[in-house]
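Quick one: structure tokens for this chain, please?
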Amino acid sequence: MQAEFEYRAVVLSDVLQSKLIGLLEVLESISDLYGASTEVERGEFESFILRTVKQHRAIQGLDWVPRVPDERRAEFEIAAQAKGLANFQFTERNPAGQFIRAGQRAEYFPIYFIAPLVGLRPVLGFDLAADPAWRTILERACDMGQMAATPPIKLVQGTGQDIGVLIFLPVYYTGFPTGILTERLANLQGFGLLALRMDIAIQEALHGWERSGLAIFLVDDAVPSAEGFLYSESPPTRANTFRWGRALPIADRH
């Protein structure tokens, strides 16, 4: 019985890991898009990304987050308004959770392109660097030159109660060196951002697979158990429950 249980658990975890790898590859497509174009327009971004988003319900959003130094802030805001984004400005949240004009900083990382945009227009211009915790994750992704993820969070999309993660991919200017840290810092263009809802990702991955008698839990190893749950199902009720665990990488987290 234990051998059968472990075999089924291994198969399902392999399927889930394959699904997660595929979703992260979707994020990498943003880097490919910017690598193939000198200037990506909003329509180009949306048409490129929406085809992919429609294939994966677990993807709650794919965003482009440019790096904007303070001396270019006014120019960037005016250009966005001229391209049809009325009243566009860099924003942050006040203690009450309301969007207000962002305070002055050396550089900004505003959400500029979102796909799909439905229901998320107020997020356009939100400066991710305004949140110290998110700023740390952005810096870590840039420093490593690879994806970095948040701990479990409640996503803005849907009911606001949907648990998922945000994953950031650093994108560098094409043709510029990125081999060492100083080069990555100097040549950072911005970030691709993937909002991933974990319950849908798991349900999509395991759809059609035999799961009777099994329960699945997904937790962030680096977060206290109460806050680290990404997904859970009611466990079997028998006292002699078998258990099996495995570390699944999601960007730089497990």
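The chain has a mean pLDDT of 88.
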